[in-house]
Amino acid sequence: MVAPLEKQAYALFNKTLNYLQEKYPGFIKKGKDRPTQSKIKLTNGVEIYCLPVGNAGLNIRFLTIGRLYIDEASRVSDEVYVAIEPALLTTGGATILLSTLNGAQGRFYDCWVNKDNAYNSFKRFAINSEEVIDKRIISSTWGAEQREKAKIRLDQAKLRMTKAEYAQEYLGLAMLSLGRVFSDELIKKCCILKRSNIKRGSKLYLGSDIGGIGDDDTTIEIIESREDRYYQVENIILKKVYTTDISKRIKELSELHEIHKIGVDDGGIGFGVFSELLNMPETKKKVKALNNSSRPLDADGEKSKKLLKVEMYMLCLSLMEQGLVQFLADDEIINSFKSILYDLDQKEREKTDIRIVSTNGHIVEGLIRALWLAYECKVLNIWCAYSNNGNIE
Description:
By secondary structure, the protein is an alpha/beta fold.
């Protein structure tokens, strides 16, 4: 059982172990061969492995595989599929791909549409979220109250999302209007840095995406600015933490590394963190609200047509394409970049709006804030270096 990230692989593995313990407990070996976090040995000789494959599939090249399960298969890179397929050759093993689609692209999509008739051996099954809610049998683990709450969530999702977003995430359709913001080639070119100690006196900018105590992670990203280039020097992921703990961690990092500016989203849960940082003497002059739903001012002092979120993403994309920014070579970061999609929200007689959507974008959300602050400060410093008559002061 494999998936792009550890938490995804372990989620499927734990469901399998729980099922075996409930239905076939006698098949699970005990003692020194008892289940571990990544391996289950059965009395019939079968061994079940749980492995994150990352973006190159190095973790699975040593295996001979009888049956392969790939979760979140639409997020797995082509390099991983190339590494996996020889492991099934001598066994004639089967491959099971599990995923929602990630736009009309990638190996999973090619398999789903049987591109060039190269995937004839696969059988295809799909069920959408609306069908699951309607058809799932009421039981001790799925009650009528849960069903009603699930229906409400779907109704609310329809109101929040564009048709393309809802169609992909809940109906399992590949929407041509949804496309990747960052290509594999661009991500590979920019995610190349090794983690190293942060040098004292560096010009550092911190960006954070706040997840709180829910299922979403909180990420803290730090970017170093050197002349006209930018380098990621830190990536911190916090799980299920209170806003007070997040604020305290950001304050500690600010003091430890002498952070120049701090950017957080002051909407939703982020408002608590922003307020706390604003009331701390050590951070109140550094923190800046970078709200996804706000609209920045243009050169004439008018509000931009684009949301700040889109502006921040476009700046990040531009810097990457120009080769002016580098990020850490970390699978979590790489997969976060891969998950970022754009949706074209087209309305009759109106300009087409660009929306950025993602199910795993928390790391990138922190990075775009740190980059925005670093770039903004550089532009302001250049502007301040000139007097009104054009002479350098």
